[in-house]
Design brief:
single chain, alpha+beta, Isoleucyl-tRNA Synthetase, Domain 1, 3 domains, 11 helices, 46% helix, flat
Length: 291
């Protein structure tokens, strides 16, 4: 159900939103209007919006995207002009991102290499891309949470905007360019269910001869989606005494050495005999001491 507040003029009764100015006055008699509670749109209370105006000023994709983003499907949708503007601005940012870099994306040749073989900035963008693919896929297939899926796409778009400043002028197989092209391709493919018209047009601008509808849904690489650093809890006799940020996959010996060298741990084991050190890779180190 779509809901919106109503506007009631003392003289002219219920007014359409366009018949009330920004100061909250009736445009016909300039008297202040009473703003009613947010409730189901109805002709009688005239708390409706003109779809023709929306399509003319913002386009069908904006309205579709706002409606899917504003509320989960099991809840009422509260109409918001600011929310519509926000959806419109997001689509404008996506358009600028792709259009401004279309030539570079079209020139990209090759497949991004495994994350471990490339600079951190490339690994970070690919990690964001594949984590977004995993989240959007999960939100759409498992829970129908379109709003959280769109929020993830907005985060990916922001990451791509920040990354584009580092794009090289060449060559076509530069890993930064390939990672950027991968991210933009994933963004457009996943945006298509929400903004099909714009996504299709941008897809064509990128030089793809076939429709975006024929493009397979992107698959997340679980290895690339993993954070490269993890938090390891360090305990002394079962009590948490420190937390360490370490590289994923550190060996048990390395974890033991890092834990015992940590100053916050040293103060708890000073002068005591260390009986054993139990490690759970990427998760936990427990130092067992006597006394």
């Amino acid at each position: 159900m779509v809901c919106k507040e109503s506007f009631r003029c003392p003289t002219h009764g219920y007014r359409l939103p366009g018949e009330v100015d920004k100061a909250g006055k009736c445009r016909e008699c300039e008297q202040p209007v009473e703003v009613g509670r947010t409730e189901k749109m109805s002709k009688s209370k005239r708390n409706v919006v003109d779809p023709d105006d929306l399509l003319t000023n913002h386009g069908a994709d904006t309205i579709r995207l706002f409606s899917l983003f504003a509320a989960p499907p099991e809840k009422d949708l509260e109409w918001s002009d600011d929310g519509v503007q926000g959806a419109f601005r997001f689509l404008q940012r996506v358009w600028r991102l792709v259009e401004e870099r279309a030539g570079a994306i079209r020139s990209a040749r090759g497949t991004p290499w495994p994350a471990g073989e490339r600079p951190e900035e490339v690994r970070a963008l690919r990690r964001t891309t594949h984590r977004t693919i995993a989240k959007v896929t999960r939100d759409l297939e498992d829970s129908f949470h379109f709003n959280t899926a769109l929020a993830a796409l907005m985060e990916l778009q922001n990451a791509l905007v920040r990354f584009q400043e580092r794009l090289p002028s060449g060559p076509a197989d530069d890993p930064r360019l390939l990672a950027f092209a991968e991210g933009v391709t994933a963004l457009l493919t996943m945006l298509a269910p929400f903004a099909p018209h714009m996504a299709e047009e941008l897809w064509e601008i990128l030089g793809h001869p076939a429709s975006l509808l024929r493009e397979p849904w992107p698959a997340a690489d679980p290895v690339l989606a993993l954070e490269e650093r993890v938090e390891v809890v360090v305990q002394v006799n079962g009590k948490v005494r420190a937390r360490l940020q370490v590289a994923r996959g550190e060996t048990e010996e390395s974890l033991k050495a890092l834990a015992l060298a940590e100053p916050r741990i040293a103060q708890w084991i000073e002068g005591k005999a260390v009986r054993k050190v139990v490690t759970i890779p990427d998760t936990l180190v427990n130092v067992v001491v006597a006394g």
